[in-house]
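Readers of this paper often ask what the protein records in our data store actually look like. Such a record has a labelled line for the sequence and another for the backbone structure tokens. Nothing more is needed to write down the fold, since each code stands for a local backbone conformation. The record that follows is passed on verbatim for readers who wish to inspect the format.
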Amino acid sequence: MTLTRSQDGPDPSAGGPHASSGGPDPAGGPNPSSGGPNPSSDGPNPSSGGLYERLTEFAGRSAATAGTGKDPVNLPMIRHWCEAMGDDHPAYRGPDAVAPPTMLQAWTMGGLSGHTDRSSAHEELFALLDGAGYTSVVATDCEQEYLRPLRPGDEISFDTVIESVSALKTTKLGSGHFVTTRTDVRAGGQLAGTHRFRILKYASAVRPRGPEPTPGTETEQPVGARVEGGRAAEQRAKARRPRPVVNRDNAGFWEGVAAHRLLVQRCGDCAALRFPWLPGCADCGSPEWDTVEASGAGTVYSYVVMHHPSFPAFDPPYAVALVELAEGVRMISNVVGVPYDKVRIGMPVRLEFLRVDEELELPVFRAGGED
């Protein structure tokens, strides 16, 4: 089984807490996979001065050999993970518990004290990139393959190899090189899974700044507003929100939005509610389902404030919230009616529908939550 998931952090365009789930996109926000770092996008030819040729020499070299996990697989870490992810599957509890497969990387991470088992090749590669001016870093994606479940008590060991370093690529963040590593994770000496991880080491693009605010006018601006140059303001005014991806699995959700109804899937066999929309039940596997209409009441379960990157049609900073609906499921959207720096965990919110342009209407949540 192979799972690919983004490592870019919360994304207002994600249809739920798991961006890889393929659910609907209630927030209609920017997606890091469109217009952002993309290892397959064409950029300039290899770096000047033979840098790219030197970088390619690291492909196939070891980044870590016979590394060991700082802790064996254990129930407290599994519990913390499940609480953070909102996953209460019974397979992850009790005397016969297994670790969630997506925790594969967690058992090999260095923690706050860092890694002590990286090879000289790994350090040399990153020193070479830093010396060439590619000092910024962002994780772009990972791919995991699971071969056997991990259980409490398993002692973890791993080997990591530098699989590839890309030619110079140009992204909206700046120009740089994508570095892909592969980690083979073992439990008791037996291969349990592989973890491919890709980052971008880049030099930040220099962004032009608009004129400074006229003295004395700052307090007259709405909270979060910025004074922009005429061209930038015009471009933002013309920009439209990215269109949500509508497919056969989530078309019913968007039909509900068009009718000002927030529909949640309900399993036809075990009656479990689920969001984002999926073709089958994660609890019992049944493909049968119907829908229930959410009441619209909810609370802010978690949130982030987006400062960067800047996308057309969005004016950072703004808050993106994971809202827990009264029905018990959670969805990602924007909180309106309150400045971004006033959003708080536990804040009551209420559903409303926001028309962002002549074609697109989105479910958002207004702070306060009272009718």
In short: The two ends are 46 Å apart (CA to CA).
